[in-house]
Amino acid sequence: MPSLTLYHAAPSRSSIVRWMLEEVGEPYDLHVLNLMNGEQKATAYLAVNPMGKVPALKHGDTVITEAAAICTYLADAFPKAGLGMPIGDPSRGVYLKWLFYAPSCIEPAVTDRAFPRKEEPRRGMLGYGDFDTVMDVVAKAVEPGPYLMGEQFTAADVIVGSQLRWGMMFDLLPKRPEFVAYVGRLEQRPALQRAVAKDQELAAAASR
After folding, report:
1. Containing structural domain, residue 14
2. pLDDT tens string 39-92
3. Is the distance from CB of 172 to CB of 109 less than 8 angstroms?
4. Cα–Cα distance for residue pair 201/98, rounded to 1 Å
5. Same structural domain for residues 58 and 128?
6. Cα separation, 143 vs 132, whole angstroms
7. Among residues 25, 167, 190, 186, which one has the least CA distance to residue 106?
8. Confidence (pTM)
9. Domain total for the chain?
């Protein structure tokens, strides 16, 4: 019996974690939730994640929520996969920065652009500052390649890469050459291809 269980819906943010699990290579179970039917708000699931959102990951008796936290946890829990930077390595600081940057800067910048406020907020009140700066910072980071940490693919690429891939897919962020090249490299990874194919099967079955 796998000790890892992903509470999942496709498509959703939990697809990020499914990609990460495919990269880790450990067996895992899926607990699929139908978001349209409100299963994420059922009492049983709220006991897992009181936010009523996916993803959530159960590893033994431990429950982790938030995609970036889950990916960080998995990289540390399964170091043989080589998806993290070890504690004590100075490069772990940069690695952690990108794991936090995606949900705290990229996602809110994209969301605010897609759903503008009635009144323009002061730049200093936004944790990410402004959209163009966020995009410039990411573009500069991914341009050298192949990955954020150089030659090593890490959980940070799963998190940042998912944001860029999703954003360009739905025309929510610019298709800058740096982004297109970086996402193109990520899409060659067998683990991402497996995760996408499995989620497409799941979504197709749900629509029948």
Report:
1. 4-82
2. 999 999 999 999 999 999 999 999 999 999 999 999 999 999 999 999 999 999
3. no
4. 31
5. no
6. 16
7. 167
8. 0.94
9. 2
